[in-house]
Here is the input.
Amino acid sequence: MSRIEATLAAIKASQRKALIPYITAGDPHPSHTVGLMHALVAGGADIIELGVPFSDPMADGPTIQLACERALVHNTSLWNCCAMVAEFRKTDGRTPVVLMGYLNPIETRGLEAFCQLAKDSGVDGVLIVDLAVEEAPDFAPKVRSFGLDLIFLLAPTSSDARIAAIAREASGYLYYVSLKGVTGSAALDIDSVSEKLAQIRLHTDLPLAAGFGIRDAESAAKVGSVADGVVVGSALVSQIEKHQHTPEVLPELLKAQLHGMRVALDALQASPEPALA
Here is the structure.
């Protein structure tokens, strides 16, 4: 059982909801990333998604695009990201870490070399935004042979056939993009999220995490009421952008911001979960 599977199984057994924050590695500077990862854990993170900076992050809105630009100014590479995870692992051997990024940096250095480095560094899973499920039969076995989970995105427009195909290749959890558009989009229709998650659950027993459009404790609780986990990214990255010139204040700010969401999600244990449509 992978660290991701074990963590999510324990969360389910305790009737909690997973809180999965995202930050971009190297933002605002590579020297701060590991400290921010520890701050996220202190704030209540169950799993960390660490973004690999890329020059053309096509699924991301302006907030994360700018974070990638700030990180790339300091030449933050995929290999640097793995080194950050290795540093994080020196004092945290429990919290799963997922690298989230795009195919190009992996293909540039080679899939096997990447998988070996990721495993050695303590990475638990990879989410490759532009990896089509049609390519997964060649890609997924190699990733899993190194003990890494391969996590896929599902969209509001995903058909039953595509959901089934992705569910066959995925492990760890599935990340449902809770609205149409790029990261940081505003509109969030919880009824639509609920309906789509019910459709997805017909095809898989994997935990379902939902992200995009989650900005605060209230929106986290709404999504957490129908999903197994909540992913929050742009709201945290916006905080980093705002305080990029005073990075020493960021650990406490991110910890407090995430803690509010943790409290809201934990409060759901006291309330009956609504039936999915």
Residues 273-277 have pLDDT under 50 and may be disordered. The longest strand covers residues 18-24. Residues 15 and 168 are 26 Å apart (CA to CA).
